Amino acid sequence: MSFFDRFRRKPRVASTAELRAYFNQAASDEEHYPSTIDPRIFHVKLVMEHLGDLSGKLVADVGCGKGRFARVIQERYPSARICAIDIAEAMLAHVPPGIDRTAAAMTELPLSSGSCDGAYATESLEHAVDIPKAVEELCRIVKPGGRIAIIDKDVKAWGRLETPAWERWFGRGELEKLLARHCTAVSSRPISYWEEIEPDGLFLAWLAVK
Ligand SMILES: C[S@@+](CC[C@H](N)C(=O)[O-])C[C@H]1O[C@@H](n2cnc3c(N)ncnc32)[C@H](O)[C@@H]1O
User: Check: CATH 2.30.39.10 for 3-209?
Assistant: First the structure.
């Protein structure tokens, strides 16, 4: 994909109803929307490392899918309270027992301001449609000093995968700027599934402290 192609494509705005219908159907596709993840995968390790010790803490998994990250957190920190939030009820049906689950859009999170010790969104922000609002919401629910992690795809790799018409991938600076509106410490980096393997340019991680 050329430099110009990346900017030529304009994502189509999708309604909440359209997103919900799409992902309710996608939930039956276990290959592309898995219920579990190997905790040794660097995406998981990085989120866990950034969020720190979650014993007795409240953490939100925003756009949680089937709760594969939440499942790992629950196993590691049984006393943590995890709020799994997703637009699609059929995804939430796979979230393990013991994890709170709520159907809601990332742009209107059903949690009060400053209520969470941490929040993360893995491969879900790309579907939020109103990206500044979704980042604002992710930051709003976290208390001062709390931690935020986002994992999503790099716009430089756009075209590598098939995507629905509303999907967006991001530049490092773009999300850094949005996070910096609400957070004090913001960083980003390319990541791969395995720590010892050089990132291939598909995934980026953004980390922030409120
Ligand atoms: C690619 S899956 C990732 C799921 C999960 N975070 C993971 O890593 O396994 C994207 C998820 O985002 C959810 N989603 C899409 N748009 C959303 C929105 N606007 N608000 C909340 N969740 C949304 C979908 O239903 C889907 O479960």
Answer: no
